[in-house]
Structures are given as C-alpha cells and as structure tokens.
C-alpha cells in the first residue's frame, strides 16, 4: 500500500502519553508526519505539538481538532460507557473536517459489545475512512505501569482468573506500527483488525519467561472469578472490575487462544515475541545496578 498524507494537516493522537499513543506519536513523527499530541496535561513530546485534551471537558475539543484531518482514539480509561463522551466528540470531529478515525478497542470486544464496542459500531457511519484496532492483551502489562507488572515487581507473582488459558499477547510497538499504517496509508482499512503476537501463551508461560529473563522467580497464582473481581473492585468501579474479571474467565475458556497475521500483513514484518519484548524492556528496567541511567 502506498503511504500518502497531506503534511499540512495534522494527525491528532488522543491519549498521546499512553502505552500505544506515545508509540504511535513517535512512529508518526519518525515517518515525517505532523502530530498533535493530546493529553490532559498537554505534555510535550519530542517533535509533536502538545495540546490539552480531556474526554470529560468538551471545551478542550476545539483546539485539539483545529488543523487535524485524522485522529487516533484511545478511549477514556476505566469508563464502562465510553460512548457517552466519545460519540459527541466524534460528531464534532467530523464537522471539523476529520475524515479518518482509527479507534483502539480490544480483541475481546466486538462491534456492539460492552464498553468501547458501541463506539466501534458507530464509527463506520461517522467516517468514510476508518479502522478499529482490536489487539489482544498487551505484553507491556507485564513490563510497564500495569497491575500485573506492579505485582511482579512487588510480589513476584501474576494474579489472574485466566487459569491455563492461552493469549496471543501483542507488543504495543506492533500495535502502534499498525496504527500508523491505518492512519496514513492511501487506503484506510475500513474494517476491524485483530492484532496478536506470534504465539499464544498462558500466564504460566509468561511467568516462566519473566523468571528466565530477569533471574527473579515469578509465579502465576490462579484465582477464582469472584476473587479476581473483588481484588479489582478495590482499585476501580465495580462494573469495570466485573468486566475485567469476566475477560479473564473468557481466557480460561479459550476465547483468546489464537494468533493472526494482521501485523505482518499491514507492516510487512512479523510481530515481536514476548521473550524479545521482555529482554528489551525488563532487562533495561533491571539495569541500574550495571550503570544504566534508565
């Protein structure tokens, strides 16, 4: 596919400081695109134009949309009904001249499903050029700022209700690479794209790989659905906690035991495996004792 984009217009990245937003911003800039990096604090990112944006403050929408013709959408975190704030913004984006929208959803959420599934369902009726990225669970959940990563660092354990179920965990760098193509290729995908890594792994497999890479013993503790729901409910709204625990239960039943060739097809290269990502990210995080400044 030929990559073309009007460089006088900007790509608006909503959630530009997040796991996929920051990577999408960096890759767009590296490819020579003008980027408006939207976040609640208008955080400056190298090469991007910072702009304040808050899903719950429509007064921030106008400045964010000014001069943008494409938008990457990261839903508000932890909101069980993101459509309530996202759809008004998308109507305004269309009126402001945005003609392509790429939405971050999840492999477990189909069009019309819970949460962001309602936005997915509405997107084709709002924009003639669109894509919905439906990645599997992020590999960075075990290496970055996430409940699992925190539990690994603090307790040497991953706690889930996923049992022995396997997941095609995907690297956030690969999600961003697909997002860039979906945003800037001459032809929009105009479909939803299920993104996975190269293999399906259980959480026991993940624990073993993290143990081997870091040298610290990590285990996977198997929880019941009720235990997982209650654990999450102490950290987030009850409804959202129940939804996440339900996703673990679906994993245990085999819902995420798959891989797809989408990353290879859109980027021209194979997706990264979890061991490579763990070696890239966890070994660096563990490096202060060897003189690393990171």
UniProtKB/TrEMBL annotation:
Residues 15-111 form the NAD(P)-binding domain. It comes from the Bacteria. Residues 132-254 form the NmrA-like domain. It holds the Pfam family NAD_binding_10. Gene3D superfamilies: NAD(P)-binding Rossmann-like Domain, UDP-galactose 4-epimerase, domain 1. SUPFAM superfamilies: NAD(P)-binding Rossmann-fold domains (SSF51735). This is NAD(P)H-binding protein. It comes from Streptomyces telluris. The lineage of its organism: Bacteria, Bacillati, Actinomycetota, Actinomycetes, Kitasatosporales.
């Amino acid at each position: 596919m030929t990559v073309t984009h009007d460089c006088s217009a900007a790509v608006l990245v909503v959630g530009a400081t997040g796991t996929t937003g920051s990577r999408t911003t960096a890759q767009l800039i590296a490819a020579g695109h003008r980027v408006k990096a939207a976040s609640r604090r208008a955080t400056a990112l190298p090469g991007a134009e910072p702009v304040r944006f808050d899903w719950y403050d429509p007064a921030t929408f106008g400045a964010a949309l000014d001069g943008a013709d494409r938008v990457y959408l990261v839903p508000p975190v932890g909101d069980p009904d993101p459509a309530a704030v996202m759809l008004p913004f998308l109507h305004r984006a269309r009126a402001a001249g945005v003609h392509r929208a790429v939405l971050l959803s999840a492999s477990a959420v189909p069009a019309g499903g819970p949460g962001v599934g309602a936005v997915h369902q509405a997107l084709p009726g709002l924009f003639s050029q669109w894509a919905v990225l439906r990645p599997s669970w992020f590999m960075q959940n075990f290496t970055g700022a996430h409940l699992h990563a925190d539990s690994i660092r603090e307790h040497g354990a991953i706690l889930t209700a996923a049992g022995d179920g396997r997941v095609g965990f995907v690297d956030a760098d690969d999600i961003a690479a697909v997002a860039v193509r979906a945003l800037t290729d001459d032809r929009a995908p105009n479909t939803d794209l299920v993104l996975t890594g190269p293999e399906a792994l259980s959480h026991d497999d993940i624990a073993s790989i993290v143990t081997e890479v870091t040298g610290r013993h990590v285990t996977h503790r198997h929880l019941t659905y009720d235990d997982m729901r209650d654990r999450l409910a102490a950290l987030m709204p009850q409804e959202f906690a129940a939804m996440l625990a339900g996703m673990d239960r679906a994993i245990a039943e085999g819902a995420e035991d798959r891989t797809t060739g989408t990353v290879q097809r859109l980027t021209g290269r194979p997706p990264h495996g979890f061991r490579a990502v763990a070696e890239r990210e966890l070994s660096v995080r563990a490096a202060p004792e060897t003189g690393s400044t990171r």
